[in-house]
Amino acid sequence: MTNKRVWLIASIFGLITAGILMIIFVDTNQQDSEIVEEEFVVEEELTEEEEDLTALPIADGYRAISIAVSGTEGVSGFIRSGDYVDVVSLLPSLEEEVPASQLLLQNIYVLSVGGPSNRGVEEDYVPYETVTLEVTPEQGATLALAAENASIVLMLRGEGDGETVRQRQITIEQLVD
């Protein structure tokens, strides 16, 4: 036999085998799967664990706002739900103005880190790209404006540290002095 015939016979045999296997597995999978009608879950049917994942516990008069953070901006992954943070805004250099930082918000409660998929996960380290904070509407507007126009850095507070300091802007020139 020539090489062409061997390749032709091998190809035909391979296609036939693949077709038979596909028919067997596709047909078997269709028989095993049942069509399930749409089910709607009402709140009363949720377990306590499932209820915890449905809504954030936001205090009256407050709102939840999520901000994007990287590893360093998010305190290298040490922020957890229930912690308190300070929010620092790093203002870009404008024409004839020097870059500056501003302690924007203090003692802000962390509702969640990462997003819904990370809520309820009990691990030493869960990587996250967002942090959801509990803020007043005014704080939320301030934070949204800063997040859109400046860099945001979070500072993790120690447990029980509720002290606030006078807010002031710090420039590069002040760091050099």
TrEMBL record:
Residues annotated as domain Flp pilus assembly protein RcpC/CpaB: 58-157
Protein name according to UniProt: Flp pilus assembly protein CpaB
Domain of life: Bacteria
Keywords in alphabetical order: Membrane, Transmembrane, Transmembrane helix
Positions of transmembrane segments: 6-26
Keyword Cytoplasm among record annotations: no
